[in-house]
Amino acid sequence: SPRIRRRVAWMYYAEEMTQGAIAERLGIGRVTVTRLLAEARALHEVSISLRGGIADLPRLELALEKRFGLSEAIVAPFSAAEVDPASAIAAATGRFLSEFLQPGMSVGVGWGRTLSRALDYVDGGQVDRIVSLLGGTPEGQDESPAHFAWQMASLFRARCHLVAAPAIVDSAETRQVLIRHCGLGQSFALAAKLDAVIVSVGGLTSDLFPGDGRRPAAAVLEELASAGAVGNLLFNWFDAQGALIDHPVNRAVMSPAPADLQQARHRVLASGGPDKRLALRAAMTLLRPTVVITDELTAAALLAEA
Q: Are residues 274 and 224 part of one domain?
């Protein structure tokens, strides 16, 4: 792909890595490295320097991988700081999923606007199963965890497993009853046996958060913010250090604990934008992702703060 070709060119010409070292780093054959370098020269992407700004993105990607111990970082370009980068991140996420997901994989999926938009850029493919990692949201919302999981399953010709419960129930006791006695234990058991999880970071906004079933979402969010929350992962709320906060919502959410998601070999986190930077950095501590997909300004901010 053009992105891999640019990375190879940067590593070879700017970082002076050998072709063998590049092949080992990227998990591709040395013949492929040679071919991509030839293509870069034929396309005039390489002369004395890397042209047209293509150096910036590989530089950021490689720096993120080194700083945060990632197997891969994908940095999406966009036109201006005032532009919402969600569409650019979604496009990069969709292309990544099309290439990354393989037959036989069991994949857990979160939910959010960035992930939903990513489906527009997915070419399709085949996996064994898609597992929703979050219970349902109120009727009337255009987007929901179940709808997203079904769409993913359709695109990848997979079996689909949903969490047949609200995203947040009324108490920790109700959550335990549903898991132990109402068949949801199987759904959570599947979440511990995934090959990959694909999630995004949620912020302190009330448009997607359903509240706690007793109070309006805005009131609950105000309380969460007062408790130190900066964002959420599958409605598990965490602070700026990436630690789960002590709040009843975290004990009543119908989703696996972030620690359980770490058992998946591949953990993909796709988020960005100025309103998500603090939450994204904290989520990286909480989830320990293997792949991060973000925008170039957020990538630069993460590196500046590290």
A: yes
